[in-house]
C-alpha cells in the first residue's frame, strides 16, 4: 500500500499527466523540415519513356554516361539522365536551379557535369549537387531531381 502525505488523488493525476508530458516532449523534440522549395523552378507533371535500345539513348547503357532529353513536355527545359551504375539512373531538370528560367538558363552537358551559361555554375550529374557554390552567404539550390525507374529495356522518367 502506498502512503502519500496530503492528497490521495495524486497518483491518478500523475497518471493522466504522463501521456500529456510525453506528447509535449515529442512535439518539442521533433525537428521540423527545414528544406526550402526552389522558388525559381515550378513543378511540372510529366511521364517520359526512354527506350534504351534506341541508338539515341545507347550511351545510357554504360556507367558514367549521360544524355540530354530536350523533348517538349519533358521537364521545364528538358532532362539530363545519368547512368550511375548498378542499373541505377538519375534524372535532373535541365534548367539552372539558381535563377528564373531565361535565355541562358538551360544547362549544357559536359561529360558528367551540367553547366549554366549565365553564371558558369557547375552541377554533378551523379548527385545533382552544385560543384562551385559561391561562399557569399546566399542560398543556392541543387538540381531538381525527377524519378527514374527501369523496366526491362525502358527507363521511365516521371514527376
Describe this structure in words.
With 159 residues, this protein is α+β, with helices and mostly antiparallel strands. 22% of the residues are buried. The chain contains one helix and nine strands. The longest helix has 20 residues, at 10-29. It is extended. A six-stranded antiparallel beta sheet has the order 1-9-8-4-3-2, with no helix packed on it.
Report the mean per-residue pLDDT as an integer: 88
Low-pLDDT parts are none
Strand count, sense and barrel status of the largest sheet are: 6 strands, antiparallel
Shape: extended
Protein structure class: alpha+beta
Considering DSSP H and I runs of 4 or more, what fraction of the residues is helical? 10-25%
What's the tally of helices?
1
Distance from N terminus to C terminus (CA atoms, Å) equals: 64 Å
Q: Cα-atom Rg, whole angstroms?
A: 25 Å
Strand order of the largest sheet: 1-9-8-4-3-2
Task: Please report the total strand number as a whole number.
Answer: 9
Compressed to H and E, one letter per element, the order equals: HEEEEEEEEE
Strand content: 25-35%
Amino acid at each position: 500500500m502506498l502512503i502519500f502525505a496530503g492528497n490521495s488523488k495524486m497518483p491518478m493525476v500523475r497518471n493522466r499527466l504522463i501521456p500529456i508530458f510525453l506528447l509535449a516532449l515529442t512535439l518539442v523534440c521533433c525537428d521540423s523540415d527545414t528544406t526550402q522549395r526552389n522558388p525559381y523552378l515550378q513543378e511540372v507533371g510529366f511521364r517520359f519513356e526512354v527506350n534504351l535500345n534506341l541508338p539515341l539513348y545507347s550511351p545510357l547503357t554504360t556507367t558514367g554516361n549521360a544524355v540530354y532529353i530536350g523533348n517538349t513536355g519533358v521537364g521545364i527545359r528538358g532532362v539530363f539522365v545519368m547512368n550511375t551504375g548498378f542499373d541505377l539512373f538519375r534524372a535532373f531538370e535541365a534548367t539552372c536551379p539558381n535563377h528564373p528560367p531565361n535565355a541562358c538558363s538551360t544547362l549544357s552537358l559536359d561529360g558528367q557535369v551540367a553547366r549554366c551559361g549565365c553564371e558558369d555554375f557547375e552541377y554533378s550529374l551523379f548527385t545533382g549537387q552544385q560543384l562551385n557554390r559561391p561562399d557569399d552567404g546566399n542560398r543556392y539550390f541543387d538540381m531538381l531531381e525527377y524519378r527514374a525507374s527501369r523496366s526491362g529495356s525502358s527507363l521511365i522518367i516521371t514527376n
